[in-house]
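Researcher: Here's my situation. A collaborator sent me these components and asked whether they could plausibly form a single complex. I don't have experimental data yet, so a predicted model of the whole assembly would be a useful starting point for our discussion.
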Amino acid sequence: NAGVTQTPKFRVLKTGQSMTLLCAQDMNHEYMYWYRQDPGMGLRLIHYSVGEGTTAKGEVPDGYNVSRLKKQNFLLGLESAAPSQTSVYFCASRYPTGYGYTFGSGTRLTVV
Amino acid sequence: GNSVTQMEGPVTLSEEAFLTINCTYTATGYPSLFWYVQYPGEGLQLLLKATKADDKGSNKGFEATYRKETTSFHLEKGSVQVSDSAVYFCALGSNNDMRFGAGTRLTVKP
């Protein structure tokens, strides 16, 4: 099925550990995004990419890094996880302006 | 910068009641406006959109009108069903990104 696939779906990390979240889309979308969702705060943009090889910071980029080496993949890295990064992470992609986003089903990350 | 302010919930209604969820925005330029719905354990799904002033977006009985004079994009449905229980997000899309409201949880009771 066409869409946005996120892996893993769940993960528990210890403080200080690192990990990478993978987002893959098969719709040939140019734009890709990483959001985090926290109770009462909606979705906040972490980083985004407007094309292969490009990345840019969003509202809450600190503590995260991203890479877009291939058009279909957008990776989110946590170099040294902190409890404040406990959240649900969503990846999204879209065509340029005027179109809605297609979201993945999310990754629930807990940092203990 | 761009931002969205959404009616806080939770909202609890009886089946067949009328629904309104308020959304106002602050933006420069001419953004597109969206409503997304999130069911438990899932990602957000696009419900409807409007790309310019006075446009009305509609889908599955829901509708919202892009009001530039009041900077609003309120979501309405004339008769809600139990299956409409979900979290609803208002969003504002500009050239590169989209800003979301905090979300409103709707529960519809039989």
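Model: Some features of this prediction you could bring to your collaborator: The first strand of chain A starts at residue 4 and ends at 7. The radius of gyration of chain A is 13 Å.
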